[in-house]
Write a structure and sequence with these properties.
Layout (H helix, E strand, L loop, with lengths): L5 H22 L12 H26 L9 E9 L4 E7 L3 H21 L7 H20 L3 H10 L1 H11 L4 H30 L4 H7 L6 H18 L8 H8 L2 H26 L1 H30 L7 H21 L3 H32 L4 H6 L4 H5 L1 H14 L6 H14 L7 H31 L17 H19 L2 H16 L4
Antiparallel strand pairs: 1-2
Length: 527
């Protein structure tokens, strides 16, 4: 794209990882008088916008300077010793797999900061809110950039504390229970995952992901690989979340503030699936092959289960919650990601990585829209929204209604939008899985997954009909107009809409990055 010196690339990647952490610390300091604006609260919210904007700019420049002719090569690497006694190194780097996730994280966090600046979170201590969001961003970005197993675990755990407090302090009804459920599920999964990571490190003699991927499991016995995949896989499956380890997700999303929901769905869930691709597939291929059919089975059950739960919430009289429905839809969509990974084929894994990005864009937009609906109507109860009046959003806030309909059809996988390609490629991969996997079983998984796409269309169109058009049995007559899309909302949502369309019409832009890296990863090596 553009020629940038390798040392500059290393600096940019280091800034992307460390910048949010420094910004989080600075957010807790008193603001200088000249930066306070109308109030100290406004100053710290502006600080959040500036820091996340700088990180996004660095991530974009990093993407422009990335050597797109060699996306399978680790670039912008920093590799220095940190704890010699434990062979732990500060090893950073990006390739075609991690770069899109890095940019997605920086983008969504910046859009959340912009949204929070104009629509401050309800509750006290905006300093703490901004600091927690920046800490969350730093931990997520580090998860996608570090190439050491212990550093990956530390980054993986860093995000738990800020998300817990975002839910517990700035969430809605039931926030305390939802926050505790989130932290307990993820912490228990992480303890098991740590044991698996340490087992790999002890048996292989290194914690370096690049060295482990190049070794491709040759230094690990079959039994060690099986145990490691089981332990690490449980921790990653909780974060993904995979059925039946998903039950923390609907409660967390329903209670979380808009920023928390957007970041939880848009980037935190991706840390789990990224771990499957970056760690388990190349490091323990034999162990992963043993569990792949079971992972695929859980994935398709999650697809159908999530869709049926959404259909139940969307029906009239169920008193379903819009945010809860979007959360359950995430269980189904992430099921397609897991199905693609479980095929152990380039087609399936590329589909999984594409679906990861598409889900972040589309579901992030949907949670922004759900927050806007609640701000205007005071509720996300679907029956209440449908009964507000005869025309609902199309008549009362047409732009908001149109955007919600766009997000819904993008989520159901309409061709030409980002949601289509990931799910289709995952199903294609399942149709012809890797050698050694049961073709008959995977054909069954393909059929069940395809059925899940029909269920997705059913509940999403039901939501559009009820919320945007209104319930035909609702009270007739004129209803007051609602505030339509505001300027800052338009600014925060437009990039997500545009990227959803671009990724749907030009999938090569993303697949051209991921495919060479995936091919090399599955072949047993990385540079």
């Amino acid at each position: 794209m553009i020629g940038i010196n390798e040392s500059v690339m290393r600096f940019l990647l280091a800034f992307v990882v460390v910048g949010p952490l420094l910004g989080a610390a600075a957010a807790l300091l008193p603001a200088p008088p000249g930066l306070k604006g109308r109030s100290p609260e406004q100053a710290v919210l502006r600080h959040g916008v500036l820091v996340t904007g700088a990180v996004l700019a660095a991530a974009v420049v990093l993407a422009l300077g990335f050597d797109h002719h060699h996306p399978a090569t680790m670039q912008a690497q920093t590799d220095i010793s940190w704890i010699p006694a434990l062979h732990v190194r500060v090893h950073l780097g990006i390739d075609g797999i991690s770069l899109p996730l890095l940019v997605l994280t920086a983008l969504l966090t910046f859009l959340c900061a912009v949204h929070s600046y104009f629509k401050p979170p309800a509750g006290p201590a905006p300093k703490a809110f901004v600091a927690l969001v920046l800490l969350l961003e730093g931990g997520t970005l580090a998860s996608f950039a570090v190439l050491d197993l212990l550093l990956f675990f530390l980054a993986f755990e860093t995000v738990l504390v800020p998300m817990y407090f975002l839910i517990a302090r700035w969430g809605g009804e039931g926030r305390t229970r939802a926050a505790w459920k989130f932290i307990l599920f993820t912490l228990l999964g992480s303890v098991v995952m740590l044991l698996g990571l340490l087992l790999i490190g002890i048996k292989s003699g290194t914690l370096d992901m690049v060295a482990l991927a190049t070794d491709n499991g040759r230094s690990l016995s079959a039994s060690v690989q099986v145990i490691a995949v089981l332990a690490i896989g449980i921790g990653l499956a909780v974060k993904t979340p995979m059925w039946p380890l998903h039950s923390w997700l609907p409660d967390a999303h329903t209670a979380a503030p808009t920023t928390g929901s957007v970041l939880l769905a848009g980037v935190l869930l991706k840390m789990g699936t990224y771990g499957f691709v970056r760690i388990l597939l190349p490091v323990a291929p034999h162990g992963f092959r043993v569990f792949a059919p079971y992972l695929a089975a859980f994935a398709v059950v999650g697809i159908v289960y999530g869709s049926l739960a959404c259909l139940s919430l969307a029906r009239r009289g169920a008193r379903g919650d819009l945010k809860r429905l979007i959360a359950y839809s995430s269980v189904g969509h992430m099921g397609f990601v897991l199905l693609g990974i479980a095929t152990m084929t380039p087609t399936g894994v590329n589909g999984a990585l594409f679906a990861n990005i598409a889900h972040g864009l589309i579901t992030g937009l949907l949670f922004f829209l759900a927050g806007a609906v609640k701000d205007r109507t005071g509720t996300t109860d679907l029956d209440t929204l449908a009964e507000e009046g005869g025309a609902a959003l199309y008549g009362r806030a047409p732009r908001l209604g149109g955007l919600l309909a766009f997000g819904a059809v993008a989520s159901l996988g309409l061709p030409g939008l980002a949601g289509f390609w990931g799910e289709v490629l995952a199903l294609f991969g399942a149709f012809d899985p890797a050698a050694g996997l049961s073709r008959a079983a995977y054909l069954t998984f393909t059929a069940v997954g395809a059925f899940g796409t029909l269920l997705t269309a059913a509940y999403m169109l039901t939501v559009v009909r009820r919320v945007c058009m209104g319930d035909p049995s609702g009270a007739p007559g004129d209803t007051p107009a609602l505030m339509d899309v505001r300027g800052y909302e338009f600014a925060a949502w437009t990039p997500l809409v545009a990227l959803t369309v671009v990724a749907g019409l030009w999938p090569k832009a993303l697949l051209g990055l991921t495919d060479p890296a995936v091919q090399q990863l599955l072949a047993g090596g990385t540079r």
